[in-house]
Amino acid sequence: MRLALLILFVFGCSWASAQSDRLRFDQPFVTKTFDQSTGDISAVNRVFNSTSRPVRARWVREVIEIPRGWSVAVSDGTQENSYRVDSADFVIEAYGSAPITPHVAAAIGDGNVQVTIRVFEVQNRRNYALSTFRFEQQASSPAHGAKLYPNPGDEEFRISSTTPLSRVTITNMLGKVVKVFPGQSDSYDVSDLPNGIYLVGMTGLDGRVVKTLRFSKRSVRP
After folding, report:
1. Rounded CA gap, 65 and 140, in Å?
2. Phi-psi region of 207 (alpha: psi -120 to 50; beta: other; left: phi over 0)
3. How far apart are the first and last CA of the chain?
4. Backbone angles phi, psi at 192, to 5 degrees
5. Under 8 Å between Cβ of 160 and 187
6. CB-based contacts of 69, cutoff 8 Å, min separation 6
7. Strand blocks (E) in the chain
8. DSSP for 157-174?
9. Sign of the Cα pseudo-torsion (139, 141, 142, 146, in order)
10. CA distances (Å), origin 9, targets 4, 16, 155
11. Which of 131, 152, 140, 148 is nearest to 218 (CA)?
C-alpha cells in the first residue's frame, strides 16, 4: 500500500512539473482589423517561459492565408521584422517572456492574412506554444449593425446584418476553420461542434470580412 502511494506521489509530482515546465502564449488567437489606408499592420503577443532556466527557443511561421504581393515579417524582440520563411532562434530568460510580433505589409488590393507561429524549445521540441494571428481588412461599409444570437447557443445561431453576406466562417481558438456556410441563411447549424468559444467571420459580397464576433457554444443540459 505504501509503495503504491509512493508511486502515485512521484507520478503526480512528475506530471505537475511537466505541466508547469512549458512555454505558453498569452493569447492562443489574436485578431487585428485594419482599413485599406493602413500601410504596416502589426499585432503583438507574448510567449512565456515558466521554467527556472533560460530556454533557447525557435519560432516557425506558417502562413495560412495571404493575398498575392503581400508579405509577413516577424519580430521576436531581438530580431526585427524578419522576412525569413523558415525559422529564427532567440533566448527567453527564466520565468521571463518575449514579444512575438508579426507585421503585415499590405500591397494594393483587398484581403485578409492569417499566420500561425509555433515557438518551441530547441533542445525539447515537445515543449512548444502556438498562436494564430488573423489580420482582417474592414469593408468600406462595415456591418456595424450585425448581431449574432442566441449567444451562448446550443444547436444553431442566427445572424442579423444590414450588409448582405456571401460566406460565414467559424474558426476555433487555435485558428482552425471548423465550418463554412456559403451565402446567407436564416440559421446556422452548429450542433456537431464541441462546446467552446469560436470566432464567426462574416464576409460580404465583395470578399471582405465585414465583422467577426465571438460565439459561445454551450449545450443545454436537461
Report:
1. 21
2. left
3. 42
4. -90, -5
5. no
6. 107, 108, 109
7. 23-25, 29-34, 40-42, 45-49, 55-65, 71-75, 87-92, 97-105, 113-121, 124-137, 147-149, 156-160, 165-172, 177-182, 188-189, 196-204, 209-217
8. EEEE-SS-EEEEEEEETT
9. negative
10. 9, 11, 43
11. 152
pTM (two decimals)? 0.58
pLDDT at 222: 47
Q: pLDDT by residue (tens digit) across 135-182?
A: 887 655 444 567 888 988 889 999 988 888 999 999 887 778 899 999
Alpha-carbon distance of 43 to 57, in angstroms, equals 20
- How many Å separate Cα 162 from the centre of its chain? 27
Tens of pLDDT, residues 36-70: 655 678 899 999 999 999 999 999 988 888 887 78
Beta carbons within 10 angstroms of residue 79's beta carbon: 14
